[in-house]
Amino acid sequence: MVKKNIFSILIALIIMYLSLTSSHTFDKVSFINIPNIDKVIHFGMYFGLMSVIILENRKTLKSTGHLFLTGLIPLFYGSLLEILQSILTLTRTGSFYDALANGSGILVSILLWLWIKPIKKEIIR
Prior knowledge:
The protein is an all-alpha fold. The protein is 71% helix and 0% strand. It has helices at residues 6-20, 37-56, 64-88, 96-124.
């Protein structure tokens, strides 16, 4: 199970590090001064995480329901990290809107897979 999902686990660990490290670490990245850019970053991180989960498990994710249930894993993980930000860090706070961006990235990844999967099958034939 771990070997099969090694990239998903690595991405999840990177997300954990980025979520729980001091916000002062990111002060050096001040050249990106776009309002709410962090929401786009949250969307991208969880879109990437869910996409890798799908790719690593594409042979076992047979039904749409199973795919959406699998999406609950990164959704709960992201929500847990938002809670831990408030509890474990002094410079970070959990945010409902960050969790919403996480969930949006997960949902778009799932919907994109559901759209691409039939096209891929048609091309292979």
